[in-house]
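[step 3/7] inverse_fold.run input=structure_tokens len=276
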């Protein structure tokens, strides 16, 4: 039960920083600010917490690359598609893929109730793709980009799940990952914008810095949970951030919730209860 609560808190944190990202006019700049937080927190953490076991180094390097790819894909997805369709499609793709990986490669066999719960979570999240958008279905560029983002999410989830289990220290793995992926994204952004990479207004910096702190805390909780439970279960629970995002969007961003979104969210809640 403690794992479920921790992952649900992480899901709420993820939905919160995603809402901050959505409200940022320049998303690349927002991710630059978030990456700056990652670098600062990572550098401080590396100096004061135990280092992870060397066995986890290849996973850290690969995960850093995958996180940068994920952020770039997510930025592009938001540019070519509606947020309330692209985000659920990207996040809803991951739990099923992670569960299949855990089943075939890690021999993590979910019980019947847990498997049904994971399928209900996936169905509810994907149903949200077709509700509340300006178009009846996402355009193909948005679909392709969102699915690619989901594959990136799956990839770093699996890599980090394996890496943190061999690190012998969750906190050490977290701070090293924050440093690596933060430096990686700043390098990519500097290549794209040159000297202007850090030149954006105070509002974007504020949203990005808050988002960076929230995102780091949330993902640290997820990494701890991956040492305690099956990867597929954690992935499914984490993606309930879609439901929290729908509520935040209705309450703070004035997005319509609607009957269909409520029904789809009910599927997700039912799935979570079965997973528990």
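[step 3/7] decode complete -> sequence:
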């Amino acid at each position: 039960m403690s794992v479920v609560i921790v992952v649900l808190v992480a899901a709420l944190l993820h939905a919160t920083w995603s809402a901050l990202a959505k409200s940022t006019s320049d998303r690349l700049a927002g991710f630059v600010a978030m990456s700056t937080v990652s670098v600062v927190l990572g550098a401080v953490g590396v100096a004061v917490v135990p280092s992870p076991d060397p066995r986890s180094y290849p996973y850290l390097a690969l995960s850093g690359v995958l996180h940068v790819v994920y952020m770039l894909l997510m930025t592009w997805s938001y540019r070519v598609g509606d947020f309330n369709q692209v985000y659920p499609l990207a996040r809803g793709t991951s739990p099923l893929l992670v569960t299949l990986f855990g089943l075939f490669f890690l021999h993590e066999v979910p019980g019947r109730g847990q498997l049904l719960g994971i399928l209900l979570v996936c169905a509810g999240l994907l149903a949200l793709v077709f509700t509340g958008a300006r178009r009846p279905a996402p355009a193909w560029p948005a679909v392709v980009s969102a699915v690619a983002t989901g594959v990136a999410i799956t990839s770093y989830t699996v890599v980090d799940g394996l890496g943190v289990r061999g690190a012998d220290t969750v906190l050490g793995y977290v701070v090293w990952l924050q440093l690596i992926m933060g430096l990686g994204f700043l390098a990519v952004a500097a290549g794209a914008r040159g000297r202007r990479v850090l030149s954006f207004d105070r509002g974007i910096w504020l949203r990005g810095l808050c988002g960076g702190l929230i995102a780091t805390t949330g993902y640290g909780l997820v990494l701890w949970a991956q040492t305690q439970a099956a990867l597929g279960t954690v992935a499914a629970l984490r993606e309930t951030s879609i439901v929290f995002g729908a509520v935040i969007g209705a309450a703070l961003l004035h997005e319509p919730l609607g009957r269909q979104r409520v029904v789809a969210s009910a599927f997700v809640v039912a799935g979570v209860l079965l997973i528990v």
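[step 4/7] annotate
The longest helix spans residues 140-165.
Residues 89 and 144 are 10 Å apart (CA to CA).
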